Amino acid sequence: MLQTNLVHLLAISLVLMYHVAAVKVTIPPGRTECMGETVEADHFSVPGGPRIDGRVLVSGNSQYYVPFVTIRVLGPTGDQLWQQQHVYSETHFNVGARGPGAYRVCFYNPWESRTDAIVDLVYFTLAHLRRGAGPINIPKGTQDDRSKEVASQDHMEDVRRTIYGMSEFMQVIQGSQKYLHRKLERHQQTMESNRRRTLLYTGLEMGALILVGLVQVLAVMGFFKPVKSVKASV
């Protein structure tokens, strides 16, 4: 019985660990895109203050304009929990959760942005970041007594809360790894773009210098051309 319950709890934890996935959307000027995440009531049985945690990266493809967005986090009743305007590059939000239900994060690309905004929601999850679940107390006695005691409802509830807390912690760790990976990709793209731009400008500069040098050589050679004398007729 104990092994069966633990297997079920571990399966639940694995599902929770893969529940959060990165989402990338392109938002035209004047448009709003929202993404949601449903938090079950079981998550709020974990001790500690539940928090809605997430990271966002913002970028664009325009060479002339830098997009920026307004980000809002909404609770299950539609009330606004957090907002930040003029996000050009990245931001991190961590706000208190207000019970189970559907939480949404909305991105608004204003007309003043003048270009499409590429928003990368690296992760968006609930986590008890203040304090984790307490340790599980294993009773003393024989193995049979311990197994029966651990298999009781109270101890299984402790195990369930611990697994929920661990799964939430793993979600934050996985999200942080994704965030660092996205940052590395963006730096590599920036470096590659700068390298191509530098090579292009260097090639144009060298071409201009070679052209100016040829013009100067031709001009100097023109000064030393022999001048044919014209004999006057007698």
From TrEMBL:
Going by the entry's taxonomy, the superkingdom of the source organism is recorded as: Eukaryota
Q: Does the keyword Nucleotide-binding apply?
A: no
What is its membrane topology?
Single-pass type I membrane protein
Where is it mostly found? membrane
- The GOLD domain extends over 22-225
Q: Which InterPro entries match?
A: Emp24-like (IPR015720), GOLD_dom (IPR009038)
Keyword field: Membrane, Signal, Transmembrane, Transmembrane helix
Tell me which positions the record assigns to the signal sequence. 1-22
Membrane spanning segments where?
199-224
Q: Which GO terms describe its cellular component?
A: membrane
Subcellular locations according to the entry: Membrane
Q: What is this protein called?
A: GOLD domain-containing protein
Q: Recall the taxonomic lineage recorded for the source organism.
A: Eukaryota, Viridiplantae, Chlorophyta, core chlorophytes, Chlorophyceae
